[in-house]
Write a structure and sequence with these properties.
Blueprint: E1 29-30, H1 39-46, E2 49-56, E3 59-68, E4 74-77, H2 79-82, E5 87-92, E6 101-112, E7 117-125, E8 153-158, E9 168-182, E10 185-193, E11 205-208, E12 213-218, H3 223-226, E13 231-235, H4 236-245, E14 249-251, E15 268-282, E16 285-297, E17 304-311, E18 336-341, E19 347-358, E20 368-379, E21 391-397, E22 419-423, E23 426-439, E24 445-452, E25 457-463, E26 471-473, E27 482-486, E28 490-492, E29 499-503, E30 511-519, E31 525-536, E32 544-549, H5 552-555, E33 561-567, E34 574-579, E35 596-597, E36 617-620, E37 625-627, E38 633-637, E39 646-653, E40 660-670
Antiparallel strand pairs: 1-9, 2-3, 2-5, 3-4, 4-7, 5-6, 6-7, 6-14, 8-9, 8-11, 9-10, 10-13, 11-12, 12-13, 15-16, 16-19, 17-18, 17-20, 20-21, 22-23, 23-30, 23-32, 24-29, 24-31, 25-26, 25-30, 27-28, 27-36, 31-40, 32-39, 33-38, 33-40, 34-35, 34-39, 36-37
Length: 671
């Protein structure tokens, strides 16, 4: 990187044409200061706001802000931030008390001629190596079509020069809303605000006092348009409509291989699996060697990635087992083998590129001969170029001595004790554990345990790989304002003994997180555990798995297990099923019917025909009320008819056709 700094300094030369108004009347507060939003909400939002350094001639000459809108690294910003740039450095907030750190490079996807809007895509690391976007799993915020009114307070996140390199939060009021026409529809296309917007804020994020997304703080070019002291915001509704219309987009220039290492997208690729050799040992471990042929034309000196993926007989991508090494596991849990490619010629061939995969990396839970299918492909930083034909491989699993048993009609005779755990001065005995599988790093989550009929819950949250550490809580002021009305609970009033933990993990990869609940004194009773912050994203494969370790205490209680999936964003259509974690096959009941729910209230698409959730509510204190609708899902499970054993719930969306955030709630009892 030569003499470039790892942070974007305020002292770097800025273009003479200043596209933002100067210092406006208003008070600049650091991002960690609290207003109407909680510190946790500010922190959650800030993780998705990035600083953009714009390079010309290999040096950062100016900068702006942006918002990550997908876990694969898609960024919304302003056109005037990106235009004339040759490459883009993306700085991420890793410590709220430190300047952001340069972590990635991005390419320009599109600029829009009729609106000051542009889209970037993270595609390389800082060394210029290709990054597969679907492996990033970055914190992100989903743009939604919220509208605000005159006089409503908004907050602006960004990296203005006056912030000396730090993320800064300002606030003010919406003063004007202006309508325009996009795609034949009339809508608000411009807000004016008295919130301070300074150079560097452009392309950042504006939200309401409750954290709902509003739009992109945007540069203005003349005093006439600003009315001397007003900044502007592009509403996300207008931005989304513009992006969907597409015809107003100015095609991003095709970068060349000499353009600061930026990937080009004009070449061709070819891949073929030549052979699969079994029982090849490495380090004493048996596995398979996959021999491939690959060819790249038009990619000289452009870093690329080669990979081999695996499919099952249902044409679903295969997840890696818990025994797979980190180098074989994508951040979304997929099993794949990868290798870096560096084409040295205009037409480069790799005639014998090999990938070794140990048998232990494949999913467990099978018996006998099982067919999988291997597929090779190559990635140029923008797209997968040339998937090969599928090649079958057969693995022989040991014959199972016992069959999986979903349900039986007898009371359990197996004794599984409750969970015992300690955290600080909190000790849990006879507790219950829910493991959230493969949680994304750097997202903020909130777990709340609400007792019913006098149950005094304590809550422990910890990494399953480091049970010595963790976060714990007994009585929490915000949790004390939680109340709900759900079909299985009835009306539950707010209680001062409810517990809550707000958490995130900063591991570099997906991590299993354990949520443990018990009574403060080890007493029996019933409770609801609520987890917020989960989301269905386009990068999800099967969905979000939650494993509940059913204990004898749960089975012997008189409270059926009820699991709720309620969308907190209206576009989400929840769907979930009970599966075996080993292979995600769906549980069947005694009549061989799959246990799943799409829309509660519709017995044809929801097991055991529960009542509709429409109108039922979860009140979350300062975070407002979530009201369920007829598309939300619930399963009421008679665990009294089960042997104690792990149950995995796979949370997704109907036909994978929608995305958005949701909360999951578990209502259960302990004896």
């Amino acid at each position: 990187m030569g003499n470039k700094s790892s942070t974007l300094k305020a002292g770097l030369m800025i273009r003479k044409l200043v596209l933002l108004v100067g210092l406006l009347a208003g008070f600049v507060v650091p991002v960690w200061a609290q207003g109407d939003m909680s510190a946790e909400e500010i922190d959650r939002i800030a993780q998705s706001v990035v600083q953009i350094g714009v390079e010309q001639g290999g040096e950062i000459l100016w900068g702006g802000s942006g918002t990550i809108v997908s876990s694969s690294g898609l960024i919304y910003t302003n056109r005037h931030v990106t235009e004339d740039g040759e490459d883009y450095v993306i700085f991420l907030v890793e410590d709220m008390n430190e300047p952001p750190v340069a972590r990635y490079r991005a390419r320009l996807v599109a600029e829009f001629s009729t609106m000051d809007f542009a889209i970037l895509q993270i595609d390389r690391n800082m060394q210029g190596g290709v990054v597969i976007p679907t492996s990033l799993n970055l914190p992100f915020l989903t743009p939604v079509e919220n509208e605000v009114s005159r006089g409503e307070r908004i907050y602006v996140f960004g990296f203005p020069d006056i912030g000396e390199g730090y993320l800064v939060l300002t606030n003010g009021l919406i003063t004007t809303a202006q309508n325009g026409t996009i795609g034949g529809d009339r809508m608000v296309t411009w807000y004016q605000t008295d919130a301070e917007i300074a150079p560097g804020n452009s392309g950042g994020l504006a939200v309401t006092s409750t954290g709902e997304l509003v739009g992109i703080p945007t540069a203005v070019r003349t005093e006439d348009r600003t009315a001397a002291r007003l900044g502007g915001i592009l509403p996300f509704r207008a931005v989304l409509a513009l992006a969907e219309a597409g015809e107003t987009a100015v095609a991003a220039p095709t970068p060349s291989s000499s353009n600061n290492g930026t990937t080009q997208a004009v070449g061709e690729g070819y891949t073929e699996i030549l052979d699969i050799e079994h029982n090849v040992e490495q380090g004493g471990e048996p596995g398979m060697m996959i021999y491939t042929y690959m060819r790249a034309t038009g990619y000289q000196d452009v870093p690329m990635v080669a990979a081999v993926f695996f499919y099952d007989t249902n044409n679903e991508l295969v997840l890696a087992s818990e025994n797979a090494g980190a180098e074989l596991v994508a951040s979304n849990g997929l099993l794949r083998a990868v290798a870096d490619l560096n084409p040295g010629f205009e037409d480069t061939e790799w005639t014998d590129l090999t990938f070794w995969v140990p048998y232990s990396a494949f999913p467990t839970g099978y018996s006998g001969d099982v067919s999988f299918f291997a597929e090779a492909d190559m990635f140029d930083g923008q797209t997968w170029l040339a998937p090969s034909e599928l090649v079958e491989l057969i693995l022989t699993y040991p014959e199972s001595s016992t069959q999986q048993n979903n349900q039986n009609n007898q009371q359990s005779t197996v004794s599984v004790p409750g969970v015992t755990a300690s955290c600080g001065n909190i000790n849990v005995t006879n507790g219950v554990e829910i493991i959230v599988r493969q949680m994304r790093p750097n997202f903020s989550y909130t777990a709340t345990a609400v007792g019913i009929n006098g149950f005094d819950p304590v809550l422990i949250v910890r990494d399953t790989t480091n049970t010595a550490d963790g976060l714990c809580n007994d009585d929490d002021d915000n949790a004390a304002r939680f109340q709900m009305n759900l079909p299985s609970t009835g009306n539950v009033s707010a209680a001062s003994n409810s517990a809550q933990v707000v958490f995130r993990h900063s591991n570099n990869s997906m991590t299993d997180i354990s949520l443990i609940v018990g009574d403060y004194n080890g007493n029996p009773g019933e409770f609801v555990l609520i987890l917020e912050g989960m989301a269905v994203t386009p990068e999800d494969v099967q969905g979000d798995p939650f494993t509940l370790n059913v204990t004898s205490s749960m089975v012997n209680s008189d409270v059926p297990l009820s699991v709720y999936m309620i969308g907190t964003q209206s576009q989400l259509d929840p769907y979930f099923s009970v599966v075996h974690y080993s292979d995600y096959s769906v549980w069947l009941d005694a009549d061989d019917l799959p246990i799943y729910c799409d829309d509660a209230g519709n017995g044809e698409i929801c097991w055991d025909a529960p009542a509709s959730l429409s109108g039922y509510q979860v009140g979350r204190g300062n975070q407002g009320v979530v009201t369920a609708d007829n598309r939300d899902s619930v399963l009421h499970l008679p665990i009294q008819q089960l042997d104690p054993q792990p149950m995995t719930f796979l949370m997704s969306t109907y036909n994978r056709s929608s995305t958005g955030q949701y909360l999951i709630a578990f209502h259960m009892g302990l004896n």
